[in-house]
């Protein structure tokens, strides 16, 4: 019976059993797409990744990302965690590991810089593969229904709820307080309605709720729900954080800016995560978003396929 090795890591944290867990198969050669999906479903994490040789010689690897129900084009914490796992290996498909990695993905080429502390790989920083795309406006009452809260808790003074993406689309909405954020609970019936009205990736509907700090507006607390993808809540969502950061900096008054944001997520789940975002804006347009975070190894083993 064929078998593959796996590693799990906690991403966007320096504490084991916090952050966002990720399963990585560092050498997925010989696995079919169906087997990858079955393995991702078995792990049940928000995402699992499978690493294959790159199609182009100048790139490091091809990375496929699966949720428990589907393959997706891009996600933040899978790229950070996968780079961390690969960066701790002596080589990748017979080639030495350098300071940077280039991943081929459905959404495009993802550039990764390995972060080192005391000479060891401690995390990674990735650049979002696509520019900000702003999609449909979403009715506040629909957001409130999905989150099981009163529509009065959805803030619309800064912006209304909207779909945004830098590689993977999310509905993003600001809430009025941390109490409202803590009270949010996914309502699957409302999510099905939302997916019918605003079908996102694969007909799914993923909701990213946030509250900005009154002291530091670039420090944000967030929660992400995707129950139609068997992810009732995600403790850290790099792709949603990148989309939100690009959206907020786009709407900031400065025409040119370099903004660092911190997004704190997973607190209500007992899996606190810290996601670093660096956004560059030139002549009114966001030209780059970098997502960074630390990682901690948790488990390793072998899967019989």
Automatic annotation (TrEMBL):
Annotated protein name in UniProt: PhzF family phenazine biosynthesis protein
UniProt source species: Rhizobium puerariae
InterPro entries: Phenazine_PhzF-like
Lineage: Bacteria, Pseudomonadati, Pseudomonadota, Alphaproteobacteria, Hyphomicrobiales
Matching Pfam families: PhzC-PhzF
Protein origin, superkingdom: Bacteria
Recorded family membership: Belongs to the PhzF family.
């Amino acid at each position: 019976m064929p078998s593959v090795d796996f590693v799990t890591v906690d991403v966007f944290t320096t504490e084991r059993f916090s952050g966002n867990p990720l399963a990585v198969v560092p050498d997925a050669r010989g696995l079919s797409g169906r087997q990858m999906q079955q393995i991702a479903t078995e792990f049940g994490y928000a995402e699992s990744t499978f690493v294959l040789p790159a199609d182009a010689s100048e790139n490091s690897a091809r990375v496929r990302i699966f949720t428990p129900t589907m393959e997706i084009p891009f996600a933040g914490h899978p790229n950070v965690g996968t780079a961390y796992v690969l960066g701790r290996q002596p080589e990748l498909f017979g080639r030495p590991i350098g300071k940077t990695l280039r991943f081929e993905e459905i959404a495009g080429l993802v550039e990764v810089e390995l972060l080192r502390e005391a000479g060891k790989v401690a995390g990674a920083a990735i650049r979002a593969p696509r520019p900000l795309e702003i999609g449909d406006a979403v009715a506040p009452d629909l957001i409130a229904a999905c989150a099981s809260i009163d529509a009065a808790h959805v803030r619309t003074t800064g912006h209304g709820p909207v779909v945004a993406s830098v590689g993977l689309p999310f509905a993003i909405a600001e809430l009025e307080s941390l109490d409202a954020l803590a009270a949010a609970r996914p309502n699957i019936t409302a999510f099905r309605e939302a997916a019918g009205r605003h079908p996102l990736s694969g007909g799914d509907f993923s909701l990213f709720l946030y509250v900005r700090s009154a002291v530091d507006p670039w420090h944000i607390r967030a929660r992400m729900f995707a129950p139609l993808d068997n992810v009732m809540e995600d403790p850290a969502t790099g792709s949603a954080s990148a989309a939100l950061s690009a959206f907020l900096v786009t709407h900031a008054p400065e025409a040119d800016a370099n903004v660092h944001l911190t997004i704190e997520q997973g607190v209500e789940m007992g899996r606190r995560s810290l996601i670093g975002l660096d956004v560059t804006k030139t002549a009114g347009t966001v030209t780059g978003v970098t997502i960074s975070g630390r990682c901690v190894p948790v488990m390793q083993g072998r899967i019989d396929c």
